[in-house]
């Protein structure tokens, strides 16, 4: 089977972004299938592909994956209209590939929602099986966050969401909440698999605190790390509020390490400087292979999002699975399925959103109880190994695509984790 795979933000372990699509593509190759991956050029996390950036696209093979990269520069520092322009140009060029290339199944993963447009054309005009993976529910999330307010744009996004689900042969949701959201708008009995993000056990392993090497971090500091995008959705001002609270309490032994990029990062850095938050350290995006040496040796991982109810059951963040794979206790600041799982498996602490004192209390609790940290860390690693191992998730993914290709995927919601 030849899979034409659309992931606008495709990356590899040599970059700092999520590698779900890379690992799933490699699992397809291991099963004897072919994969052609289609993506754009991420300015802050570029791929190593041959050819000039001046033409319409570059193409090369990365670890057995045939990669087509449109020369469309994308960064989350861009304005919303600029990003929307990249989304639409990616979809338009993708339609050309979907209608001309030789393949057996087309797969597209959001976000953005427009990533599914080539699949719609392939399904309608060429009768190709189309599997649509939904990472975030659109337009629910941007509407809830106030990012998209224009009623005409919201109507257009809602129509595109409906059409994507109706055109799809099957869907994948990254959480049960996303799966229910798909089912509510999809045709009756659409096959929907729930396959969450996963723990990369070959990359992330528990380490030793004494091996942590970060500028400005002392050997006796308690280090809480946040990795990933520094965007509006992440709500990282909540961490700076807790940092200010800790300084008021005189807890200068607790240090925050922010690793990554995003539109809000300059504002966060500026606020920390203005308010003299000397317990906040900011670092550049790191390759996954380097990131393990930080996460595995830190004391706690921060799972932070803005207090938006649509997030509670409608996300499956990569960073959470990196944390637990590294055996890191997790502090989560919003309710939902992750908070419930953290509490059930005793792998960290869940605090109410918008309460700087509660977040500060949780950090102090872990800083002052090293044995509790170790217990939470062991439980976190056990959860990663037994329930969210990447190899197991990838196998379920490949099984699902093969079932769709052979027209034997069961109807309705299928919970695979």
Q: Can you lay out the helices and strands and say which pair or pack?
A:
Elements: E1 2-6, H1 20-30, E2 34-42, E3 57-62, E4 65-74, H2 80-100, E5 105-109, H3 117-126, E6 130-134, H4 140-145, H5 151-167, E7 170-173, H6 176-185, E8 192-194, E9 222-227, H7 237-249, E10 254-259, H8 265-274, E11 280-283, H9 288-295, E12 300-303, H10 309-312, H11 318-325, E13 330-332, H12 337-345, E14 348-350, H13 356-368, H14 370-387, H15 390-405, E15 413-415
Parallel strand pairs: 1-2, 1-5, 2-4, 5-6, 6-7, 7-8, 8-15, 9-10, 9-12, 10-11, 12-13, 13-14
Antiparallel strand pairs: 3-4
Helix pairs in contact: 1-15, 2-3, 3-5, 7-13, 11-14
Report the helical percentage.
40-55%
N-to-C terminal Cα separation, in Å? Answer: 25 Å
- Report the β-strand fraction as a percent range: 15-25%
- What shape does the CA trace take? globular
Count of DSSP H/I helices: 15
What does this structure look like?
- There is one protein chain.
- α2 packs parallel to α3 (117-126) and α3 crosses α5.
- This protein starts with a strand and ends with a strand.
- The longest helix is centred in the N-terminal third of the chain and has 21 residues, at 80-100.
- The radius of gyration is 21 Å and the shape is globular.
- The chain has helices spanning 20-30, 80-100, 117-126, 140-145, 151-167, 176-185, 237-249, 265-274, 288-295, 309-312, 318-325, 337-345, 356-368, 370-387, 390-405, and strands at residues 2-6, 34-42, 57-62, 65-74, 105-109, 130-134, 170-173, 192-194, 222-227, 254-259, 280-283, 300-303, 330-332, 348-350, 413-415.
- The protein folds into 2 domains: 2-198 and 389-415, Glycogen Phosphorylase B (Rossmann fold, 3-Layer(aba) Sandwich); 209-387, Glycogen Phosphorylase B (Rossmann fold), CATH 3.40.50.2000.
- It contains 15 helices and 15 strands.
- The strands form 2 sheets. A 9-stranded mixed β-sheet has the order 3-4-2-1-5-6-7-8-15, with helices on both faces.
- With 417 residues, the protein is an alpha/beta fold.
- It is 42% helix and 18% strand.
